[in-house]
Amino acid sequence: MSKNDDNDKKIEDDLTVSDMSADWMPWNNGIRRHFRQKKTKIPERKESVEEKKAKKKEYRQLVLAQFLAMLPAMVCVLLAFAAMFLLAYLWLR
Q: pLDDT confidence of 92, banded at 50, 70, 90?
């Protein structure tokens, strides 16, 4: 053994960097969640018909914006699929 082998040994100080119990994972706290008392809900304010319509309109605008943002990627995938289909058709013909 050389002198460097003694220096290269790691010192174990019994400290952990993070909590390894994983209680924060949803599948790891089922029993405690089962016996935990349910909190009372705070009554929420009733929404008017106009507010519901405004929320629905805003949601539709968000969905449309998301679709339009994804449209170029979807078109590229469809074009690539069409090109591969055409090449396979011509090759196997």
A: very high
